Amino acid sequence: ETGHFIKGMHNLLNAHFDLRNFKKFESTLFEFEQYARTPEVLEHDNFRTHTSIYINSAKLNLHLMKGTFKDALSLIPEIEAKLQEYSLYVDQHRIMVFNYKIATLYFGSGDYARCIDYLQEIINSNADLRYDLQCYARLMHMLSHYEMGNYDIIESLIKSVFRFMAKMKNLTVVEEEMFRFMRHSFNVTPQKLRPELETFLEKIKHLERNRFETRAFAYLDIISWVESKVYGKPMATVIYEKYQKSKR
Question: Does 174 map to a domain?
Fold first, then answer.
C-alpha cells in the first residue's frame, strides 16, 4: 500500500537520524527520492504532499547530522514555499518541527538572530503542543542569546527552560546533566564558563553513542556545542569531523 510505504520510509529515515546511521540514512533518502518520482506518487495529491514534506524534512536532517548547516540554508526558501503550497495538508505540529530544524541550521551557522526569529514562532505558538519542542526551543533560544552576549537576560531565560523541562517526561541522562549544569553554571562569563564546560563534557561525552540518549541529540547536539566551546572550533566543524570519522 503506497501510503503505508511512504510512512514507513519516513519512520525509517527518522530512526536512522536518531541513531546517526549516516550511510543508511543517505541510501534510504536516495531510494525515497527515486520513489517520489514514480507515477503512483505523482498522480495522487496526498501521496505527493507527504513525500515532499518527508523528503524535505530528511534533507534538513542530513545537513544537521553532517554539520553542513550553511549548505542547507539555500534549501529553506523552497521548503517554505512547499509548506505554503501544501498548507491545507500541513498541521501546526509539522510547521513547528520545520521551524525548529531551520532554527537549528541558523544556530549551527552562527546566525543567532535568524535562529531566534524561527524559535519565536515556536515559543509564541500553542504551548500545549509538544512540550519537548517547546523546551528545546527555549534552550536554543537561551544559548543563542548567550552566544550574542546578552548575559543580562540569561537567568530569566533559564527559568523559562526549566518551566518546560518540568513538564517533560522520562528525561534522559544527558538532559538531566544538561539542566543541572545550566542551573549551576550558566550565570558566569564565557571566560569563567570554560572550566565548567570541560567538567560537563567529561560527564556526558561517554553518552554520545548511547542509543537511549538519542532524543537529546536529535533535538540539539549539545555535546558538539560544548566541544566547540572547549576546543575553540565552530560547532559545524565539530559535527562535520565526527561525520567524516564515521565514514572511515
Answer: yes
Alpha-carbon separation of residue 60 from 75, 97, 118, 130, 167 (angstroms): 8, 11, 15, 20, 28
Q: Which of 34-38, 41-45, 57-61, 244-248 is least confident?
A: 244-248
Confidence (pTM): 0.91
Q: What is the DSSP string of 84-150?
A: HHTTTT--HHHHHHHHHHHHHHHHHHT-HHHHHHHHHHHHTS-TTS-HHHHHHHHHHHHHHHHHTT-
Q: What is the pLDDT of residue 248?
A: 66
- Is residue 117 domain-resident? yes
CATH of the domain at 168: 1.25.40.10
- The rounded distance, in Å, linking the Cα atoms of 7 and 144 is 34
Nearest residue to 55 (alpha-carbon basis) of 32, 87, 34:
32
Within a domain: residue 140? yes
Q: What's the domain count of the chain?
A: 1
Answer whether residue 2 is part of any domain: no
CA–CA distances in Å: residue 206 to residues 155, 193, 209, 241: 29, 21, 7, 17
Q: Long-range pairs for 202-210 at CB < 8 Å and ≥24 separation?
A: 203/177, 204/173, 204/174, 204/177, 204/178, 207/173, 207/174, 210/173
Residues 115-137 pLDDT 10s:
999 999 999 987 667 778 888 89
Q: Which domain holds residue 171?
A: 67-246
How far apart are alpha carbons 14 and 226 in whole angstroms? 24
